[in-house]
Amino acid sequence: MKNICILGLGSIAHRVAVGIQAAKNAQLYAVCSRSRQKAREFAQRFSLPCFFDSMDAMLQDEKVDVIYICTPNSLHKAHILKCLAHDKHVICEKPMVLYTQDLVECFAMAKEKHRFLMEAHKCVFTPLNQKIHQMIHEGIIGKVHLIEAQDADDVWVQKKKVSSWHFEDEGGGCLYDIGVYPIAYANFMAQSSIKQIQLMDQKMNDDFTIHAQANILYENGIMAHIATSWVSKMENTAHIYGEKGSIHCHNFWKNTEAILMRDGKEEKIKVSMKSDFTGEVQHAIECIEKGFTESKVMGLEASRQILQVIKS
Question: N or C: more exposed end of the chain, with fewer CB within 10 A?
Answer without folding.
Answer: N
